[in-house]
Amino acid sequence: VTGSLRRDDGGLDRLLSSLAVVDVSGVGVDWTPVFDGRSASRIPLPSYAFQHRRYWLDTVTASGDPDSLGLSVGVDGGVDGEFWDAVAREDWEALGLEEGCTIGEVSPLLSSWRQQRRAQSVIDQWRYRIGWKWLAEKPVRVSGKWLVVSLAGAAIGDEVCGVFTAAGVETRCLKVDADRMTRQAIADLLESAGLWDEFCGVVSLIALDDGIGGDSPVISRGVLGNVLLLKVLHEMGAEIPLWCVTSSAVVVSPSDRSVDATQSQMWGVGQVAGLELPQSWGGLIDLPNVRDDTILRSLPTVLSREDGEDQLAIRESGVYGRRMMRAPLPGSGRGKHWRPRGTVLVTGGTGGIGAHAARWLLANGAEHVVLVSRRGRQAPGAIELEQELSALGGRVTIMAADIAERTDVAAVMSAIDNASIPLTAVIHAAGVVDQRLLAEIDSESMTTAAAAKVGGAQHLDELLGDRRLDAFVLFSSGAATWGGAGLAAYAASNAHLDGLAQDRRSRGLVATSLAWGGWSGGGMTEIGTTTEYFDRLGIRLMEPDLALQALSQAVANNETLVTVADIDWPQFTVYYTLSRRRLLITDIPDARTDTDHAVDTENTGLSLRQRLSGLDEAEQIKILLELVRTQVAIVLGHDDATAIDADRNFQELGFDSLTAVE
Cα(615)–Cα(651) distance, rounded to whole angstroms? Predict the structure, then answer.
């Protein structure tokens, strides 16, 4: 196909260019030696290859030095600067070296130090936490008519209705029977409320009933009731915001001494509702477990806010808004790593992530790993995994058990306790993803999706009791942090894990919940078209070795909740803010918050109706066409609407099943 060098044109740049020609001509090229150890990453090619528009940089500095070709640019340019500054100062201690080292000794040590710092820089870029921002009061009175929905017999319903009335707000109160919360019952109840045009919003107190039972042993009745309420509002075409109230679902400050994990489930559902049904969704409001009239009187004021805050907590000290924040480890925490020992139990152990965890555990000190999955040694690849892990020198046990069944979990615990090596840690990585839109979800599907993740975590927590462990690690998901279309049940389950971790901490027990982005190497995010969806969303898949290093540091630093995700913020923000403002991410410096994409749905809707009213049909069509072209351009990755030919159909423009959903 091509030669390696040309006359008067040699060197590394020529060789790499020739290899690229070979590659695009259909011959496989292993690029690993070129990029190995250089923190390089893949980037997407242009969406359309035949637009004849320049994509690459205009100039490239080329020489025989790989660094000059941009092959060794790290995530954090400060790492290399720090490295060479220490070398120039001959500060060997800063580089982890001893005085008097020879060149032969220093070279590999320096290389190792540099690679470790680069890896840490990558991990720090992946780490986030949830914080709460104190919000100044907005002295605007609630106006209009509000609908308050509560459970029959619950005093909180009458109390809230009384507060609204005292504030001068016209209120209609509806009572739902907790034992008869069917779609039809809620529809009939809402029909009795009257004309929807009269209401400014709905406040639901249903989630305050966190009773587990009835149709679902793992999803709270309150969550199921709110999902039904949201669905019925959507089906009825009632485009008024639904606000769901919880109690002790989140930790705002150290004064919040405990968390109710079943209440936390509603916060997972809320992340998804805001993405799927922005016209019908208002937001979430959390109240403290112990509340007085002062707390309740804050509700009308909170609902009057016009700043786009949709995830709020009311406490004695004021009102707070939920924020996602970067959380790089401080210098003192970077050197801390969890070293597993004894027996470590891994649920979901024969899956892709469980297998990665097992390899890491044995390589870092665990004497015995117990891998539990529903099919055990009958799972695809389980025997090969067992052989691979045994070769690492530790003891491996693969057991078949349904982690959603308490008797199965008890049997696993008994088998471990009867063995010679004591249990020191648990990694709960079991779970399934059942992608189903809120409009299609029901009690049965939510229960099935939550069975292993929520039920398994509950059984482990109960059966372990007050047993002292080195680590109790819960594999949560970014779906509980920021949501995801079709992931309401999954987000609720992972939010429960986050709440359970905080609850265990309040009881003096160890717990670390890690809300993961996507893993490469066989995780659930590499199933079917999920990888393509993540790529479009701006969630890049993480290398398992680095993800496990992040886990090790989180456990060693005694952290309770950490989100670990590789996010392309400019791309992510475009999609995340398509339908409404997302104040959750406003404290991320590199998240795009420009108003071109941060659209407030309600304001946009009002503006559009106002613009269309009074115009003739041709002018209305022109405005609507421009709106559609703009949104299509965003989804397909174009710079602006001019790239969208209005006379071509969607399939010709490049739409497939995923882009149609987006």
Answer: 31
**How many C-alpha atoms does 403 have within 13 Å on its Cβ side?**
31
Per-residue pLDDT band for 474 (boundaries 50, 70, 90) equals very high
- What one-character-per-residue DSSP string does 277-300 give? -TTTEEEEEEE-SS--HHHHHHHH
Going through 220-338 in order, the beta strands assigned E by DSSP cover 242-247, 281-287, 311-315, 318-326
Given 3-state DSSP classes, what are the helix, strand and coil percentages for the chain, each rounded to the nearest 5?
45, 15, 40
Please tell me the distance from the alpha carbon of residue 557 to that of residue 374, in angstroms, as a whole number. 32
Contact 424, 340 (CB under 8 A): yes
Is the pLDDT at 411 greater than 90, yes or no?
A: yes
Determine the angle formed by the axes of helices 221-235 and 183-191, rounding to 10 degrees: 60
CB 564 within 8 A of CB 544: no
AA letter at 566: D
Tally Cβ neighbours within 10 Å of residue 373.
25
Q: Which residue has the higher pLDDT, 424 or 93?
A: 424
Q: What span, in angstroms and rounded, lies between the C-alpha atoms of 63 and 621?
A: 56
DSSP state of 213: B
Q: Is 119 helix (H, G, I), strand (E, B) or coil?
A: helix
Q: Are 58 and 24 in contact (CB under 8 A)?
A: no
- Residue range 263-291: mean pLDDT, rounded: 93
The residue-averaged pLDDT of 531-538 equals 80
CA dihedral 333→337→342→346, nearest 10 degrees, is 100
Structure pTM?
0.78
Return phi, psi of residue 426, to 5°: -130, 135
Task: Render 356-373 in DSSP notation, one character per residue.
Answer: HHHHHHHHTT-SEEEEEE
Strands 566-567 and 539-542: antiparallel
Contact 174, 189 (CB under 8 A): yes
Are the beta carbons of 210 and 263 closer than 8 angstroms? yes
Query: How far is CA 77 from each of CA 73, 74, 287, rounded to the nearest angstrom?
Result: 7, 6, 44
CA distance 214 to 191: 25
Q: Which residues does 588 contact at the CB level (< 8 Å), separation at least 6? A: 128, 324, 325, 326, 569
Distance in angstroms (rounded) separating the CA atoms of residues 15 and 33: 14
Tokens 């690492």 map to which residue? Answer: 392
Q: 120 exposed, middle or buried (CB, 10 Å; 0-12, 13-18, 19+)? A: buried
* pLDDT, position 619: 87
* Residues near 414 by beta carbon (within 8 Å), at least 6 away in sequence: none
| CA separation for the pair 473, 201 (Å, rounded) | 40
CA angle 235, 225, 404 (to 5 degrees): 120
Which among 56-70, 71-85, 377-391, 627-641 has the top mean pLDDT?
Answer: 377-391
List, for residues 142-178, the tens digit of each pLDDT value.
778 899 999 988 889 999 999 999 988 899 999 988 8
Given this model, what pLDDT does residue 597 score?
Answer: 40
Phi, psi at 654, each rounded to 5°: 120, 10
Residue whose entry in the numeric block shows the structure tokens 């529809």 = 187
Adjacent-strand bridge partners of 400: 373
Report the amino acid identity of residue 380.
Answer: P
Distances (CA, A) of 173 to 200, 284, 286: 14, 19, 20
Sign of CA dihedral 560, 564, 569, 574: negative
Helix boundaries (H) for 452-600: 456-464, 479-482, 488-506, 530-537, 544-556, 569-576
Our CA angle for 309, 310, 315, nearest 5°, is: 80
Within 13 Å of residue 70, how many CA atoms lie on the same side as its CB?
Answer: 7
Q: Give the tokens for residue 649.
A: 């159909």
